[in-house]
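ENTRY TYPE: paired fold submission
RECORD: A
CONTENT: sequence, then C-alpha cells
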Amino acid sequence: MTGRLADVSARIDGIRQLGMVVNAMRGIAAARAQQARSQLAAVDSYTATIAAAIGRSLALAPAAARRGAGSRPCRPALVLFCAEQGFAGAFSERVLDAARASLPPAEIFLIGTRGVSAAAERGIAAGWTSAMPAHSGGLPKLADRIAEALYAPIAAGEIDQLDAVFSQWRPGHGVHVERRHLFPLDNKAFPLPVDAGAPIVNLAPDVLLSELTAAYLHAQLCDASLQAFAAENEARMEAMASAHHQIERQLSELEAKQRILRQEEITAEIIELAAGETASKTG
C-alpha cells in the first residue's frame, strides 16, 4: 500500500513539473505572437508606401512596362514558411499540402527547421533552406537572406515566377494557409496616380522601377515571415492550452487516487492497531 501511494505521489510531482514547463512555453509563445502582430501594422504601412511609389513610377515608364506578366512558360519557385520548433501541431504539414500541386517542378526555398524535416520525410528536396529566427526582430534580416538567395537566379532567368506559401492565424478559425504571388509584379495591381503632377526623380524610370520592385519584394517577404512567425506561436499556444487541460485532468484523477490510497492506508493502520490492542487484552 505504501509503495503504491509513493508511486502516485511521485507521479503527481512529475506532472506538476511538466505543467510548469507547459505554462512557460505557453507564455513565451504568447509574448512572441503578440510582438509579431504589433509589428505587422508597420510592415503594412511600409508596403503601401512602396506600392504607391511603384504606381507613380509606372506613370513615368513606357506603356510596355505596364502590361505586367506575359503568357510565356514560367520557371516557378516557391518560398515555404514552415515551423521552426515543435509542439505546433501539423503546422508544417499544412504548408506542404498547400504547395503540393506545384512540387515539382518549382524550385523550393524552405524556411523552418521542423519544416525541413517534414519535407524530407515526404521526399521534398529544398534548394535553399534557413532557420526561422527565435524572435521577430530577426525577421527583416531573414527577408534579406531570402531576397539575396532569390536575386541571382531571377537575374539569370532561372526563376521568372515566385510565390510565397505561409500561414496566418485567424481568431476563432485557427491556422489558414495563404499562397501569395510575389514576382513578377502584376503592374495592373498598382493604380496610377490620380493627380497630374509628376514626381521629381533622379533615376531613369526603368532603374527606379527595378529598385522599387526589389524593395516591394523585401516588404512582402517581411510580411509573410511575420505572419508565419505569429501563426506558429499561436498554434503552439493552442497546443500548450490543450496540454494544460490534459495535465489538469490527469492531476485531478491522480489526486483523487492519492486520497483513496491514503484513506485505505490510514484504515489499514487503524485496523492493525485495534487488532494489536485486542490481542494484548486477551493475552
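RECORD: B
CONTENT: sequence, then C-alpha cells
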Amino acid sequence: MTTPSFSVIGKRVVVAGAARSGIAAAQLLVRRGAKVTLSDVRPSLPESRELEAGGITLELGGHTLPTFTRADLVVMSPGVPMGQPAIEAARAAGATVIGELELASRWLAGRIVAITGTKGKSTTTTLTGRMLEAGGLKVLVGGNIGNALSAQVDQSTPDTIHVVEASSFQLEAIETFHPWIAVLLNFSPDHLDRHATVEEYAAAKGRIFENQAESDWVVLNADDPASLDIARNVRAQRLLVSVGESLADGICIDNGSIVRRTGGESAPLVPLTSVRLLGRHLLIDVMAAAAVAHLAGVSATAMTAAVEGFSGLEHALEPVTRIGEVQFVNDSKATNIEAARRAIETFGDGLVIILGGRFKGGDFADLGDALTARRATVVSIGESRSLIADALGATVNLQEAGDMRSAVRQAFALAAPGGTVLLAPACASFDMFRDYAERGRVFKQETRKLEEEWNGTREQ
C-alpha cells in the first residue's frame, strides 16, 4: 500500500544493475522527481540512448565508490549482490539501501499477493493472475517474471491486485513490503552461489511474512515441512494446501476435485480433470493459486475456466515433440536439485535426462534413487560434468556431451521406445547460455532439427 511520506524529489538516487528491474526502477524514480544514476558493470547498454534521453545518468563499466557514497538512496536490482563494496560504502556513508521490489511497493495503491518458493513461483503467479482476472478483478502480474513491479506503479489503483513473483534476491532487500496474501510454495537448498548458507537463503524467503498483520493471509504447503518451519512465527492467518493429505481445514483433494475443506464440509473449487499440466508436483501450484483466488472471492466456475485454459509455462515441463516413440520435454526452469528430482519423478522407465550447467549448490547424489528407480540414463553438460560424474557415475549410466546439439542427439540414441528425453539441468545456465530461457529454446531448436532429419530419413 502507498507510503504517503516517501518522496524522492530532488534526491540523489543510484540504481545498481541495469537489467529489467533496474531500468524500470530508474525510469520510475525520474518520473517521481529524483536525480538518477543507473550503474552497471557492463561497458555498454542497448538502451543507453533512450535512458539518457529520459534524464537518467549512466555509469557503465563498474560500480564506483564516489557515485555510491554521494547517494541519498541506493536501489538494488535483484541480480546485484548486496555485499558489493560500493553498496557497503554507500551504507557506511549514510545512504538508505533498498531493493526494487521495496521501492515500487511504497508507491502502490492496490493490494499485493506475493508468491515465493524454491520451485513453482512462475506457474503459480501466472495461474493466480488468470484466476483473479477470470473472477472479474483488476489484476497486474509481474515482479520476478514479466514486468518489474516498478513498471506497474503508475497503473496501480486502490482496487488493483498486484500478483508478484518474489525471489529471495528481491526479498532480502525489503523493509516495509507488505503482502495482503503471502504464498510460500516449498523450500529446498538453492542459490548457494549467492547466499552464504542454506539458513541465509531460508531467512530471505521468510522475509515475505515479516510485515504482515493479523488481518492478512499466508498460504502454505502442508506437504513441505521446511516451509512450515520458515513460517512458524507468522502473525497472519494461515490457509494450508495439501496434495497428499485430507486436511480438516484447508485446500486439498476430495472426490476428484480441489476443494476448500472447513468444518468437515468440502466445497469443490476445480475438478482435477480440468488440470492440463504435466507432473503431480505442479498440482500444488494449481492448489495454491486456487487458495489465493478463494480468499479473493473468485467463484469456482471462474477458477475452473482459468485452469482449463492454462497448459503451463514455456520451459516448465513443457512438451516439445515426439520423435518416433520418444517424447521430448523441456524443463529448463528446473535450475536446482529439488526441481530436477520432481521432474524426474513425473516420468517412468526409460528416461534419459540432460543434466548440468553452472552448479548452484546441493548434491547431485540426491537424484540417485529417482534415477535408478526409472533405470534412467544421464547425459551431462556444462561446468558441472565432473560433479555429476562423482555423484552419479557409479549408480547410473552416464554420458557426457559438449553442447546441446550433441546432448539431444546422444539422448535420443539412448532412449528406448516409449521413453522420454527430459531437459532438467538442476543447474544455472550461465556457463553456456544467457539464461534458462535461451537454454530451453536451444534445446527445442535442436530437438526440432533432429525431428526434421529423422522424418526425412524415414521418407527416403
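NOTES ON RECORD B: The chain has three domains: 12-100, 108-308, 318-459. The longest helix spans residues 436-459.
STATUS: closed
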